[in-house]
Amino acid sequence: MAIQLLNGVVYGGLLYLLAVGLVLIFGLREVVNFAHGALFMLGSYIGYTLAAAGHWWLGLLVSVVVMAAVGCILDVLVFRSLRKHDHIVTVLITFGLLLILETVVTVTWGKAYLSYPVPKLLAGTVEIAGSPFPIYRLFIIAVSLLVAAGLAAWLRFTRMGLYVRAASTNAHVTSIQGIDVDRLSLVVVGLGTALAGLSGVVAGPLLTLSPTMGNYILIDSFIVVVIGGLGSFGGAFIAALLIGQIHNLGAIHLPWAATMLPFLLMIGILIWRPTGFAGSRT
Amino acid sequence: MSEGFAIQGIGVERRYGGFSALKGVDIAVKRGEIRGLIGPNGAGKSTLIDVLSGRVRGQPGRVLLDGKDVSGLKPQERRRLGLARSFQRTNIFPALSVEQQLRIASWAVADAGVEEVMAELNLTALAGMPAAEISYGDQRRLDLALALVGRPRVLLLDEPAAGLTVEESHGLATILRDLANRWNVTVLLVEHDMQVVFSICDGITVLHLGQKLAEGGVADIRADQRVVTAYLGTEA
Amino acid sequence: MTSIVDKGAPAEVRPASKTARILGVAALALAIGIAAPWLVASKLTLSLTTQAIFDALLATSVGFLVLQNGRVSFGQAAFFGLGGYAFGVLVARQLMAPELAFILALALPTLIAFLLGIVFARITGVAHAMLTLAVGQAFYEVAFRWRELAKGDDGMSFELPERFFGFASRHFQDPAVMVVVAWSILVLALAGLALFVNSRVGQIAAAVRDNEERARFIGHDTTIPPAIVYAISAFLAAIAGLLQATYNGYIAPQMFHWSLSGSALIMAVVGGAQFIVGPAIGAVCFFFLKDFAGRFAEYWPAIVGTVLVAVTLLMPQGMVGLASRAWTGRRSKP
Q1: Domain ranges of chain C
Q2: Which residues in chain A touch residue C305, judged by CB atoms under 8 angstroms apart?
Q3: pTM of the full predicted structure?
């Protein structure tokens, strides 16, 4: 039982890393990034390339840095210039980006399923409640908690974090106050995509790598973001844990309920309170 | 005994949680009258229009249209009973042509009146143009025209002269008064432009901080010291 | 600044002559379609064209929702799948005459869409995109897991009974026949949409799309007309799904997947969603372009993605929009 709960937390942790990136990007640019799952996938493949050659930790570092750079480029080229447009335009653009990234992966790495190795340091199991539990999975939980705590501290105690919180509430007012929203966005979007990359690397050994690995988790992370309340970091954390548990319990106990419940929650919330999304009418 | 009030608000309130934008306002406009509704910013004028037109419902107080209680009716139902309104921020259909949107409006009320309303408001020449492409002044008149299709019994106007030049406002005021008289439309007009108000209104109601401050003929209100004080006092 | 959800040319107010024109064009198109199998010898071409028409119907479904309701849906595949699955399952289990199954398989998604349209009345923009994504995927998950219904993710093949609408069923799996059937349905659908756009309900829906609040204040009910548009849209998707299922004799959960909705959306946008024929043209072009891509098949998703980005940014009116502007530009030259 404890093992089952832990597994739920593991998946929840991965979802959190991805979802919080979406929240960061949405908070500042009001963009729902349909390409986020593809960024997750790209991060995973980049990390894999180095990990398969024996440099697991380097792979993690390189992936995060590269994905951060991708995010910055994305912000400058796409999000910044589309600020004034109908928000649905950015949805389409990021959807197009998803397709492009998918091809980048298939062309570079092929379509075959790949297996991401576990680093030697984290191999093996520990005994929890009488059953063996992979140390690597504990690592995933640890990473998620670290990021959550770090993010909370950053938002709470640093000036930039304060600006992010202000801009997330009202970017227009914040820019009037003299804060350079564009420069802030660069950092924040870069951070959001870096987290997608991190999530991808960390998830690698847990899932198998394939060019479609981003699709499922994208939907799940959308569900998390909507249920957690768009723009809410704490909400994303709680919702991620919730969905992670439902997902996991579903694999074992009530597959139907577990599959449908997240969708129904998301649908229900979007119908009941579509505000918070640009373009919804009250 | 009905005095022939075309539109009446009785004890109208509007609360947002702890804050009251309107606190028990009574207003009654006689058939055929053009009533001005003025007051400093934040007085609750637009809010009163919102309540009378049905944009806001479920608040304490009643709204009567020709003696009939319409408090629970939605805006579209009130429109079909002859209560129309225009908007302060131009609220038209940008992609549709001028004629098309007026025609769509006519289907809800009279199935007619498109040509006459276009003629009255000098929109005939623009009939085929998409509303997004006409000038601001023309759009304001279109906003008004949408409310006038089918000759409504009561017309609630929320700053119809907003953003117009002095000339345009004057022209609009003249058209309004003329039309209201010929079509026997009762008008309740919110305006900041005092020239417009004093030139076409038969009576004026003054709101201040959500309550009725004064009410009477144009001359009386112009001379009323309380009104002057209210405007000067709240001038930021 | 135009965006892809910018509304198209306003419907004109001369119903009689417009109707005549629409019907005239439709009749001509039907005639061409019927002649096709005699003009085109290659069964392969006919088969490919048939599949392209299925895509065109689904793309039209997505595009029409954008045009008349101003909303982007990532879940139209739900109705595509419903049409196919309802028909396939009813026929496979021989629960009723196939003609009845046909009607039911179309009525069900249409009704569901109408109800959803009412529920979704105030939801637009990105919220609507995500909502429809979720709804579509929910359907996918059900189809994927419900093994008793139609073998879950394995998909299920089914056979039509001997006769269908008076014809021998095997004809419906002959490309030469199906291409005519599908084409005719497409032409009738497009003509129907054109007539709807000019009708009162259609115009009121357009007004609601433009400014829901004002539409209410001029006296119209703003819930039903958009719901009707939803229903029509779903009906088109359902027919497409039903036709494809019949033609292949096979249904699979992939028919519900959001990637199908997404590609239909892309075809609609690239073709030009503000024009009734835009999505269909986009679909056909994409279909044959893909076939033509040949060696570059590997790069196909990237090509699609790039085209989508380019069109969205540079020509939001799509291909048809571009062509129509070029045409009017040429005509106005001395």
Answers
A1: 20-332
A2: 95-100, 103
A3: 0.89
